[in-house]
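User: Please check token order:
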Amino acid sequence: MDPRDTAPDSWEQEDDVEATIDGQLDSAFTALNVNAKPFVPNVNAAEFVPVFATKAHSENLDSVVAVEKISTMEVSEIAAPLENGDAEMTTEEPWDQKEAEPNEEEPGGGSCGDRGPSGPATEEAAPEVMEEEEETPAPKVPPTQPDAPKKEHINVVFIGHVDAGKSTIGGQIMYLTGMVDKRTLEKYEREAKEKSRETWYLSWALDTNQEERDKGKTVEVGRAYFETDKKHFTILDAPGHKCFVPNMIGGASQADLAVLVISARKGEFETGFEKGGQTREHAMLAKTAGVKHLIVLVNKMDDPTVNWSLERYEECKEKLVPFLKKVGFNPKKDIHFMPCSGLTGANLKEPTDMCSWYTGLPFIPHLDNLPHLNRSSDGPVRLPIVDKYKDMGTVILGKLESGSISKAQQLVMMPNRHVVEVLSLLSDDVETDDASPGENLKLRLKGIEEEEILPGFILCNAENLCHTGRTFDAQIVIIEHKSIICPGYNAVLHIHTCIEEVQITAIICLVDKKTGDKSKTRPRFVKQDQVCIARLRTAGTICLETFKDFPQMGRFTLRDEGKTIAIGKVLKLVAERD
């Protein structure tokens, strides 16, 4: 009986505290106390929730926030523990507390409205209020829910040499589009100053773990999203360091559009672009990962060594264009250059006075005006898995390459042929019922354990499974390799999101780069800059398609000793001989 006695006690105390703090609310609170009693045995509340959840929820939120702001700190200090800890405390006290909130809003809600939200609806409202007070990015998402599916969805990967400013530009874009509020950034700035790294604070919006912040280097592919008037963008912030290129390939394989960030600062552009620099490698990998359009952001234009100089901008451009052309981008159609400064935000959203010679659109408006991508939603379902983890079931992440997925749909996980069911669908952390191609999804699956999934597995529909196998013929371009490559050579194959060891078992013929003619005799080896058709065999069974049938799952890169050696496309799958 003790807790029951204490409940009204603390009621009284709280009432007194509020009376002393806020004279105006006095009458409201005494009235409250009278009304609160009949509702204590809150048995029927649950039945009312479905009716009011939708309407009352939003009213509740606004008014609760308003009430919290009216009452001073002390009141919220008393209220907060109750909202959070209502599971551990005795049932009666929180119910009274819950009653107190709706009745304060009685003019708007009416008595029937009180009873509904006083059940779980207010419980839902309370955590959301807490969230709003802690970090403001949270409320940015709900308003966009209704039109999220209508806007075209585009995945943008930021690539480039280490320290070119990819994460900083990503952070700045999120700030300019209102996905990160000023207060959070000020907090990052303070923390960065303490570590005497004050120019890094913007990148902390995307580099979230401690190691990345301490060293100032992205390791994993950071994810964030922002919206413009016409489109919904997912930012994939790829690591620039050469040790983490495999992570970058995983990020690029999910992207529709790549932003190559280069630093205009004297010395930095040159190191990024020389033989060992990541500017070249990343541009090439982006092309093989299936990125069609490339925007080259010439960053750090505000640097004292550059000072928005047109000569330096043109110099960077002249060096890059021939290389990008060689990789396979068409300079007239596929590439767009623009100057910017990630740290100051110049020319990202608004044009800048510093740079009168640049007449094009700034970065975000330019993204908004890009032509529509044509994607077919009626194709077979193909979702290569990027990552997986346990969270109330098995959750997988990946980009839907083709087809559409809806809730409760039965799919097959290849190559293990597990039948799974989709329990819930999240597109950029917003729950939806169905998803179309190009969206970055989180799926909660039923019927499979997290340990049974590996990155590189593919979700398909049962009517149209993807091909699996170990042996295939492919056309390969050797990009960088000091010695010759003979049959028996081992490398690491990166195909869509899958990473697997592979051996070149036979070199079938050489292909002439200019004419495309195939050699009549079998070559004994291939060397740098040659194109050949070879037979490859992987260590384990992988999912793959021919390039002709399904380009996203038919292009691959071969890497060895931390360098990208070759890029290629799958021509033919070879059936296994038993």
User: Anything to note?
Assistant: Residues 45-70 form the longest helix (26 residues). The chain is about 30% helix and 25% strand. The two ends are 75 Å apart (CA to CA).
